[in-house]
């Protein structure tokens, strides 16, 4: 065999997967390799699904001006949030799958970096939640007020608010009068002969789930308090959320801890696999 032929044959040995016995045995653990690959296939599929649904939902909104106007408040648009989360999850899953299956150290490094940044962000959020609880609560109220203001402008946001009010049996962020911030439900709109003026969405109605009467909230806040209590929920959704978090603190904390452990193990497995790949390449280099 000529020297050129031997050189080409040597270059056709890209990984230990094809020659497990090369150099006295492979340094790469198949268990770690396929654990990382299998784990990230799930993230890849979930991320791709979220990305497709988010993009489809965004294109279904036919008002380009409204879309550009809402970009400054993208966190209130479920479609944009789903697209961003889906894209990030897809990239993490893709880099993990390709890095593990092809033993590509660049993709493994990208996968570890993204998981590390995500884990760091989660730790910072948890710390801020304990240290700056009052500030976060104030900011949350301000941001959630925008949900009321944009209720009619975004069909996805409208669906989310209606679901929240129906499931939690609440109305508004802090109280039903929060709906005065929306131009359609503001009490001053009575001068325009609006049926919704001084009212609330149907999802605030006590019997809204059973009857699905979309006009049940019309003029609801123009009635005396003793009549309102029989027709709409008087407690806001933010206090309901705070009560739920307080009563389920152990379960929420456990879930956050489990997710953090899984992310940490993913980083460890990826780094271990990357070290094995470097060790295998070093063994080939000595040969």
TrEMBL record:
Cellular compartment(s): Membrane
Pfam families for this protein: Tetraspanin
Entry's Gene Ontology cellular component terms: plasma membrane
UniProt entry keywords in alphabetical sequence: Membrane, Transmembrane, Transmembrane helix
Topology versus the membrane: Multi-pass membrane protein
SUPFAM superfamilies named in the record: Tetraspanin
Transmembrane segments: 36-59, 79-101, 108-131, 249-270
Family listed: Belongs to the tetraspanin (TM4SF) family.
Protein name: Tetraspanin
Taxonomic source organism: Panagrellus redivivus
């Amino acid at each position: 065999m000529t020297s050129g032929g031997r050189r080409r044959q040597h270059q056709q040995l890209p990984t230990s997967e094809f020659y497990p016995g090369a150099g006295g045995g492979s340094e790469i653990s198949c268990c770690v390799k396929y654990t990382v690959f299998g784990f990230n296939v799930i993230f890849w599929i979930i991320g791709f699904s979220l990305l497709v649904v988010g993009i489809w939902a965004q294109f279904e909104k036919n008002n380009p001006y409204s879309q550009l106007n809402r970009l400054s408040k993208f966190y209130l648009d479920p479609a944009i949030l789903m697209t961003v989360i889906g894209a990030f999850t897809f990239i993490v899953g893709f880099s993990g799958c390709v890095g593990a299956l092809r033993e590509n150290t660049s993709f493994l490094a990208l996968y570890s970096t993204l998981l590390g940044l995500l884990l760091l962000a989660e730790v910072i959020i948890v710390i801020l939640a304990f240290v700056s609880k009052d500030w976060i609560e104030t900011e949350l109220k301000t941001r959630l007020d925008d949900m009321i203001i944009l209720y009619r402008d975004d069909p996805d946001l409208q669906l989310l608010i209606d679901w929240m009010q129906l499931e939690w049996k609440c109305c508004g962020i802090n109280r039903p009068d929060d709906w005065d911030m929306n131009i359609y439900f503001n009490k001053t709109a009575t001068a325009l002969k609006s049926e919704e003026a001084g009212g609330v969405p149907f999802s605030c109605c006590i019997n809204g789930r059973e009857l699905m009467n979309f006009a049940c909230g019309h003029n609801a806040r123009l009635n005396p308090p003793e009549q309102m209590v029989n027709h709409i929920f008087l407690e806001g959704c933010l206090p309901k959320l705070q009560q739920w978090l307080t009563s389920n603190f152990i379960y929420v904390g456990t879930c956050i801890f489990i997710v953090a452990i899984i992310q940490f193990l993913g980083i460890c497995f990826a780094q271990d696999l990357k070290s094995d790949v470097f060790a295998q390449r070093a063994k080939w280099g000595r040969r």
